[in-house]
Amino acid sequence: MTQTHVVDHYPTRLDHAIAPIPRVDPTVWGTAGDGPLPQRVLDEFSDRGYLIRPDAVPDDWLPRLRHELDRIGADVDDGDPRVIREPSGSIRSIFEPHLLSELIDQVVHLDTVLPVARQLLGGDVYIHQARINFMPGFTGTGFYWHSDFETWHAEDGMPAIRAVSCSIALTENYPYNGSLMVMPGSHRTFYPCVGATPVNNHTTSLVRQDIGVPDQTTLTKVADQHGIDQFTGPPGTALWFDANLLHGSGSNITPFPRSNIFLVFNSVDNALTEPFAAPQRRPEYLAARTVRPLRPVA
After folding, report:
1. pTM over cut 0.90
2. Domain 37-74+81-284, CATH number (from 1.20.1740.10, 3.30.930.10, 2.60.120.620, 2.40.160.10)
3. What's the rounded Cα separation, in Å, for the pair 72 and 91?
């Protein structure tokens, strides 16, 4: 598919390796006067590419949210393409939960959530993608190292790195139950990947991602340069991270399940174009093309 009138600053899915590309977009688009985060925290996010915010969800919401995840998992149709299953058959992710649950839609609009997204991205935002992730004890499998923006750019046509993810823990995140790992500072560089995007790549990549991931030599160099941090914390804690931050998680072989609400906010000024490196668009539930600015609830 030919891309017209849009400059591709981040070429990827190539037939040969090229050098890493320095980021041309800001990490923080707003100012300290635009939201709840002070300048010190904005500087930290700009430097490290992630931020941990405790108490993003009130304690009395957590039992209801966990119940809501169980309800959604029980109610969705087996043939619903928004439901992604592990090879064992257990549910791995459910997309568009904010459209399936009024309670989860309320989480999107919390004053501990939406104003942070607006501040980091410098104005009006919309939901590019949302899902709930399940990592049950003993059987939950991990996510290989990747930059979300690489996929959203290549397969969805997201032009600039002006999106941010918010992962809200609904269970305890221990160092040993598959909690997310990040490479702090890796968001400042785009790492092009080798290999063409297969048709309907999303039907397999949401379970196991093989295309659009850096090679092991690159990952080793990045880890040596930046190190690896791990997100741990109690239920209700939010991990905010830049769309280009390299991250991944191991499998959960413990008895302790891990689940989270995963929200991706994109700037309304960064609406999707045609895919930069894929033969067709992905479905709307993976990459929203209807741009509806989110408004705080009065």
Report:
1. yes
2. 2.60.120.620
3. 11
